[in-house]
Amino acid sequence: MRGIQLGFWVAALLGVAACGETNGGEGTGGNGGNGDQHPVDQCTNDADQAIYDELGAGAVGEVAADCPLTACGGQIGTIIGGDTSETAKTALADCIAQCVSDETGLSTECTSCYGLITACAVGTCLEPCSPPNQGSEECAACSTDNCSFFDACLGI
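Structure (tokenized):
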């Protein structure tokens, strides 16, 4: 069940990314694509927990889903254009982390998790999750196999 939920979240991100907007600024902060080493428990501090309590995790997820178009279109466009290098993934992860932090007030350590999952989804699962395959078993399997670190990163 968790793999399917993650697959749908990845598919939603990819659906937003596939809309084709490529404008956006440079992002800073966050923990970019650092290979198989992913941070853990990044959102467990009191300040981040207070923001989650106020906004709700769903609202933060919506902000994270909007950031690829509102602030990070250039980075998404680079990856969709074929550059899936660690440098491109790191730039996207950092941009998403900064965007979510700017919009919510969460720490960039916490929002780095949203950046990492977006970079993983776009950089790893673009082909199996692109429309019309966003709800497919292949998409869910890709996200589960490659991007299942999200909950541990957040600390939930």
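Residues 2-154 form one domain. Residues 86-104 form the longest helix (19 residues).
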